[in-house]
Amino acid sequence: MNEPAMADRTGAERMGSGSGPARALTIAGSDSGGGAGIQGDLKTFQELGVYGMSAVTAVTAQNSLGVQQAEPMPPRLIAAQLDSVLADLGADAAKTGMVPTPAAAEAIAGVLRRFGVRRLVVDPVRLSKDGFALAGPGAFEATAKLLLPLAELATPNVPEAAALLGVREGELAEIGARVEAARSLLAWGPHYVLLKGGHAQDDACTDILVGAADGGAEPMLLRGPRLPGPGAHGTGCAFAAAACAAMALGRDVPAACRSAKAFVAAALAASFRLGAGTASLNHACGKPKK
Ligand SMILES: Nc1ncnc2c1ncn2[C@@H]1O[C@H](COP(=O)(O)OP(=O)(O)OP(=O)(O)O)[C@@H](O)[C@H]1O
Ligand SMILES: Cc1ncc(CO)c(N)n1
Question: 109-153, pLDDT tens digit by residue?
């Protein structure tokens, strides 16, 4: 099949009040609790002014207490959703989150390659906050092997980075070790790695961005005050989705990561308690005021 490259569709006819919005596609699991996954990503896209679309990779039953159950979608149905969106609507940027099985990773990588999706954020999701395996057996490894090479930006947290590098999480406690780790992760193939700092014992919650173009020689450190408490559900997804939204709007990766950091900080500062467990991120109050 001869598919149009995404770039060819960027100028698709736009009707009504002039040019249409930038388009962002999330490829992720459904979170019934509304804070992470598809639901969190679409809220983030909406808040940041881009048109959100989705391909559901799995359905989870979860709430503020944790994940109770998860079922993967059949790979063919994941691929069909991606085909439907990309062949007709197009996307200026996309992000992947929960990839439940190795076959799902294969299906996603195949369609993204076929459509030439270049502005891709890969969030290599492994465990939920309460330790539920969102990536089933072999799926994290398949995501690393098949999706990270397609990524413009990869956004691992500290435990995911440790797993990818085969080191203990404790070895990434110091900022210098995390900069080195981020550099080493470039070997998986993304153009940029943003190593998130939420899990580090770091008062500034430092996120580290390195780029392959200079071999990670000039890391960019994104700092902000660590908000007290256990944080909120969905911060990792919100970061990747906010970066994806900014990339859909044409920003480069460093600018996209700066705005994602500001978005998550604002959404966290405005978070609230709904259930008996972890707080809910307030995506609707997260828009940076600048
Ligand atoms: N307590 C906090 N205060 C301020 N910023 C935070 C806090 N916790 C996390 N962040 C920020 O939130 C973003 C997500 O980081 P984190 O390391 O928590 O991702 P994650 O582990 O993938 O998230 P999740 O726990 O949702 O899976 C980063 O920009 C990080 O710096
Ligand atoms: C569906 C889904 N994706 C990602 C996460 C990680 O926060 C979650 N809890 N649920």
Answer: 999 999 999 999 999 999 998 999 999 999 999 999 999 999 999
In whole angstroms, what is the distance from residue 39 CA to residue 37 CA?
A: 6
Name the helix (H) or strand (E) containing 28. strand 23-31
The residue to mutate among 140, 196, 220, 235, having the most atoms of ligand 1 within 8 angstroms of its beta carbon, is: 235
- Other beta carbons within 10 angstroms of residue 34's beta carbon come to 20
Helix (H, G, I), strand (E, B) or coil at 26: strand
CB count within 10 Å of CB 69 equals 10
Secondary structure letter of residue 155 according to DSSP: -
Counting every residue written for the chain, the total comes to 290
Tokens at 199, concatenated: 């899990």
Cα–Cα distance list, 62 to 53, 224, 282 (Å): 22, 29, 17
Ligand showing the shortest atom-to-Cα distance for residue 197: 1
Q: What atom in ligand 1 is closest to the CA of residue 158?
A: 17
How far, in Å, from the CA of 233 to the mean position of ligand 1? Answer: 9
ipTM reported for the complex, 2 dp:
0.98
- Give the integer Cα–Cα distance in Å for 54 and 30: 10
Distance CA 185, CA 238 (A): 21
Residues 6+ apart with CB under 8 A from 150: 109, 112, 113, 117, 120, 122, 189
How many other CB atoms sit within 10 Å of the CB of residue 174? 12
What is the rounded CA–CA span in Å between residue 101 and residue 24? 23
Q: How far apart are the first and last CA of the chain?
A: 44
Query: Which two tokens mark 221?
Result: 């450190």
